[in-house]
Design a protein that fits this description.
Layout lengths: L4 H13 L29 E13 L2 E12 L2 E7 L6 E11 L6 E8 L16 E8 L4 E9 L9 E13 L1
Antiparallel strand pairs: 1-2, 1-8, 2-3, 3-4, 4-5, 5-6, 7-8
């Protein structure tokens, strides 16, 4: 069986066209962003700051408030969690900051994983505790924002109301 040059070229062409960005193709400011097990283009290692979430749920006149604050230093995350009706605890977390472009501005998103109980660690494959998508930055060096939305457990027909507020301030160190 012989392999034609054309057949070989057709097999090799996809491999040649698909290649990771070379250092010369990526903006020097963000060239350490990389694919990891959490995201296809993770730039978290560049950021320091905070991401906080306050979750309020009102059931039968009783208010339950849960707060989660993730403090980020050079991409490393420490979470302080205060569950409704339980003692506060601290633990390690994970962060993804995804840039939609290799330039210095554009769309971005982020996800934060924090432990859900004292002594636990978040794991890859867990659902993130905080997630914001389709955001826009005039400069990726400073990501700030606030968003409030209806609590996912709200059920107005059964008298359950609530909201979730997420604030973030991430700066390139």
């Amino acid at each position: 069986m012989t392999f034609s040059t054309r057949g070989f070229t057709l097999l090799l062409l996809p491999a040649l066209l698909w290649q990771p960005a070379l250092d010369g193709q990526v903006s020097g400011d963000w060239k350490r962003c990389n694919m990891d097990s959490l995201a296809t283009w993770n730039c978290a290692m560049y950021y320091s700051g905070t991401v906080a979430q306050t979750s309020t749920l009102k059931v039968s006149g009783k208010e339950e408030v849960t707060t989660v604050t993730a403090t980020i230093a050079a991409g490393r995350v420490t979470c302080r969690v205060k569950p409704a009706g339980a003692p506060e605890f601290e633990g390690p977390g994970m962060l993804v900051v995804g840039h939609a472009t290799t330039e210095n501005a554009g769309e971005y998103d982020f996800q934060v994983w924090c432990p859900e109980a004292a002594g636990k660690r978040p794991r890859r494959g867990d659902y993130p505790i905080m997630e914001m998508a389709d955001l826009r930055a005039a400069d990726y060096a400073k990501l700030d924002g606030k968003d409030t939305y209806e609590h996912p457990d709200a059920d107005e027909a059964n008298g359950v109301t609530g909201s979730v507020t997420v604030t973030w301030h991430l700066v390139r160190q």
